[in-house]
Design a protein that fits this description.
The protein is α+β, with helices and mostly antiparallel strands. The protein has 11 helices and 18 strands. The strands form 5 sheets. Strands 6-8-7-9-11-10 form a 6-stranded antiparallel sheet. A hairpin with a 2-residue loop joins strand 10 and strand 11. The longest helix has 27 residues. It is globular.
């Protein structure tokens, strides 16, 4: 923003008959302050659970909690440059409006953000009319660019939160034929994740995520669809977007969604519990079990999934599970949302540069290897905030459910190896970690768990 010129973006949700509202610079704050206002007479779905429709604009803190959380993080944010201005300096990482002016046409969920005066994004996408085919060589080149932290020249310009290296695509037959969108803002169906080429700390992250997602699925948790794929010597993870639908007539539509940080109005820098506490906010298990689960159509079912997901994350060493790794899917008819499939389950603890501190401590215990019987029991007892005491029979049933998850892990890992998706050597770090976790559980509860 320069002088008195205010930049303005138009915000839409696919399925709503009119624009949701406008996002613009906030002159009262200056710098990169923003504000969002719903359009007069807007009668569609709320942009976020934390921002229900109202006449008064939402200020910088509230607007940033939603819109900044749409954008990539870390190095993926620092390489975004204005359209058509190759060689220019990238946007400032705090310039939400600048970043969304380039990436906002295709965001997580059904939200679409474009500059004032631009045509709205394509609704819906039609395969193959709105897409162009890519050769395997082109896909490999794009992935290598992404692995090096570059924005692929032929890649779709979209906004995908997170720090992982990824490239957006669409595919026919789940990876048989790759497509890129032929126009700005056409919805994609998949993305590919790849390990960073210049950071050995995260070597094997793609393999780890495949294994962990398979274990979570075997444990009965709802997870996003993933498959292993390779291009030359490059391993990648093909992820099917749960916020997209492809109908029988090959039209691609967006589904409105938001993550827990957005739904609870948390700044992107507060996704970890220890950081949120410094700002007198809650970004831990209690926030997920309380106000987050209460937003859903079936809070009890949501809490059950979250409880089991937290245990599974601990079992697998997914210590980076934070508030942006849980999301809501909003029905188009205005009914309460449902918990989205789980995603980004990675055993960060078993990676070369892994860590043991959990993003969400269990019973106040932050270091995953230090979790004991009392802490697992505490997790099993977590429920609605108004629940005073969990009956002993319910507590035992939940702990037995944790045992079933632990027992499902070794055969699930072995099945991934048997299917040829990963090698025994690639699976060994996760197997060793799961073995250590099973030792903790066996000692704590007297269980005779199978050793992977």
């Amino acid at each position: 923003m320069s002088g008195t010129f205010l930049r303005r973006l138009i915000v839409r949700i696919e399925g709503a008959s009119s624009a949701v509202g406008t996002l613009e610079d906030d002159p009262d704050i200056g710098g990169y302050g923003i504000r969002f206002a719903y359009a007069n007479g807007y009668g569609g779905p709320a942009l976020s659970a934390s921002m229900p429709p109202r006449l008064a604009p939402y200020g910088n803190a509230e607007s940033r909690a939603y819109f900044d959380n749409l954008l990539p993080e870390g190095a993926q944010r620092l390489v975004v440059i204005p359209n058509g201005l190759e060689g220019n300096r990238p946007f400032d990482e705090n310039d939400v409006i600048g970043l969304l002016s380039v990436l906002g046409g295709e965001c997580p969920g059904a939200v679409m953000v474009t500059s004032e005066g631009e045509p709205p994004p394509k609704v819906p996408g039609v395969i193959p009319d709105d897409y162009a085919p890519l050769t395997d060589g082109e896909v490999e080149l794009m992935l290598r660019d992404a692995a090096r932290g570059r924005i692929p020249a032929q890649g779709d310009r979209i906004s995908l939160p997170g720090v992982q290296r990824k490239v957006a695509f669409s595919t026919i037959d789940d990876g048989e034929t790759f497509l890129r969108t032929a126009a700005k803002g056409v919805p994609g169906t998949h993305f590919l994740k790849v390990d960073p080429a210049n950071d050995p700390r995260f070597e094997g992250g793609v393999i780890s995520e495949l294994l962990c997602m398979r274990v979570a699925a075997a444990a009965g948790l709802p997870v996003a669809g993933v498959d292993a794929i390779s291009f030359g010597d490059l391993n990648a993870l093909l992820v099917r977007r749960y916020d997209r639908t492809v109908s029988a007539d090959s039209t691609v539509r967006r589904i409105h969604q938001e993550d827990a940080a957005q739904a609870l109005g948390l700044d992107r820098k507060l996704k970890y519990q220890k950081d949120a506490r410094k700002a007198f906010k809650d970004a831990g298990i209690s926030a997920l079990m309380g106000p987050f689960a209460a937003l859903t159509a079936a809070p009890g079912d949501t809490r059950d999934i979250i409880r089991r997901a937290v245990f599974t994350n601990w079992l697998l060493g997914n210590n980076d599970a934070h508030m942006k790794n849980f999301s809501l899917l909003h029905p188009s008819d205005g009914r309460p949302p449902a918990l989205a499939p789980l995603y980004d389950i990675v055993s960060v603890e078993s990676l070369p540069g892994g860590w043991t501190e959990m993003a969400m401590p269990i019973n106040g215990v932050a270091m995953a290897p230090a979790v004991g019987a009392a802490d697992v029991e505490w997790l099993a007892a977590q429920d609605a905030p108004a629940q005073r005491k969990i009956p002993a029979v319910v507590l035992r049933r939940r702990i037995n459910g944790f045992r079933e998850i632990a027992e499902a892990a070794p055969p699930a890992i072995e099945q991934v190896i048997a299917d040829g998706e990963v090698s025994l050597q690639e699976a060994e770090p996760l197997q060793n970690l799961v073995r250590a976790r099973m030792g903790i559980l066996s000692h704590a509860f007297g269980w005779q768990l199978p050793v992977p």
